[in-house]
């Protein structure tokens, strides 16, 4: 018997050698949960799983743990993974393997997060839609597209609607590009948190509470976020009242915030178009909460606001003392709002022509009641150097 | 090509199973090749872990064991076994996981109902193969004669011992790994020396199945012995370790939360005291801290333990109802915390 088993084992092992990639088709309909999950489990590295057109009605979260798999639907409005009846798991789809490509499908009404990829290096999200279809509600899931603890992240041509935290959230990761996406009716449109080397470009962030957020928070395994570029985005009419469940850090984001930088080392904001953000087009602040973490730096350092197109904004700031502020600044606040808190001589820098105002606070966590608002009087930079950042070229090449 | 491979593996497994059955005399040997091979055997009997599957009567060198403080799974009865190949033994590594050799397996059967009404639901196996551990779920048939591989998991309706009608979830293969992973590798969770009894370890030592009695062993409390007169802290910390820390530790599935609920974690902030949520979303329930000392009702950790709502409930996997006793012990611990 053992000889026979050895023989069988050897035969199976021989067949397990790398093979040409295969394509597995999964269609919606009866038993979709088990058929799709089984395909995700049995796929081999390099395989492609093709999702048919239609609505996959799912009862539990899905997960993928095989390297190099492509999950491809017929398009973000044609192939829908419907989690409205989800009974378990913390997200719609969980990816925990490397070199995965997600392309052309939608995740609707996941009970927790939409799609989470954790420790999944070199991942592409392309033409994905994640949506909570009843509009902005506190009971919606937290994050739509949620890569975390990963190196090499590319999120392109995707759309997230209704996330009760951030539409696209990249956390504790490196070498990131978020490009050409539409995020609307989320609390935060796009959030880069505790991450390094991120390029956020050519996105449209509209009708969120806040458009683009760059945060660094204490008490996490990965900190020291920085080297983030926000370039050539449209950040417009972010006017949805904050619907985040209380207790979360984004619950403190004021309606009408365009860009919010909190803590971080190195953020460049340039060539964006801002319009209709009633609190501030750009807000740069230190971390506001008490913390106990000697590894953490709460200051916003080396933040550069370069040339941007600043349209109407700052005309209905969700800030105490709004009327006096508006009167003092002639009806609307200038586009850049800063708390004035600097660690050394490395706080906020601006390009020629950028105007703003400052709270003139001096230390992180200081009460807003102690603010002494005044115009920004920084000497404009003539030029600056900033590292080029983003997803590895190899990842871009895979997109083509 | 690939389909051919699957069929071949199936044929091997079936053939081995048939042969194993043909040679049943008194205690048939466990099928070592099924454990160490590369295939996923389609049926539980292919391994030969049991002389009588329905009665859960183990074969030779399949050792039953119990945990001082067990993981709670909707109140399921759990029958746990460790299989050691001929001549192998477990190596104690301090208070932590017993080290099991390649070729070993851990088997856990989930059952509901008492006595003659006992119904086996699923058996989960962890196989120690040359390239690491593999976790597979098997679902018992209605006749209780066989359990079949359930790679994609499944659901069934049942009534828990607490009398709640639930949709019980059998995890899929990936969900097995969600809990059983550290730094991307599948590992066992349960058999840590600190959570095993001295008596069992003594028996294993005497049987030559364990190399020594480790210092730091058997330090976790016997959950079944909890009373309101017990100190809450050791029970609560043991409960959180066993039920939560497989994900909530560095390298675990929820490492990005920064919450570390392991038994040995001595830093109050790391276990959640005055720790703000990171990615909890509505799971925070409007509360500011994982644990607010003296205020269990304002503590996110308790809120999530006490919820049945997917997207809020913790653990995310492995339960469809609330563990009233677990919640009560953790509530008391937080209430008494200064």
Structure write-up:
The complex is a heterodimer of chains A (400) and B (338). Chain A has helices spanning 2-15, 32-42, 322-328, 393-399, and strands at residues 23-26, 48-51, 54-57, 60-64, 70-72, 79-82, 88-95, 101-108, 113-118, 123-131, 145-148, 151-156, 159-161, 166-171, 174-179, 182-184, 188-193, 196-201, 204-206, 210-215, 226-231, 234-236, 257-262, 265-270, 273-275, 280-285, 301-305, 309-310, 336-338, 348-350, 356-358, 374-375. With 400 residues, chain A is mainly beta. In chain A, α2 (32-42) links the parallel β1 and β2 (48-51). The radius of gyration of chain A is 23 Å and the shape is elongated. Chain A starts with a helix and ends with a helix. The model of chain A is unreliable at 1-18 (pLDDT under 50). Chain B has 338 residues and is α+β, with helices and mostly antiparallel strands. Helix content of chain B is 22%, strand content 19%. Chain B contains 7 helices and 12 strands. Chain B is globular, with a radius of gyration of 21 Å. Mean pLDDT of chain B is 91; it is low at 1-25. The interface between A and B is large, with 69 and 65 residues.
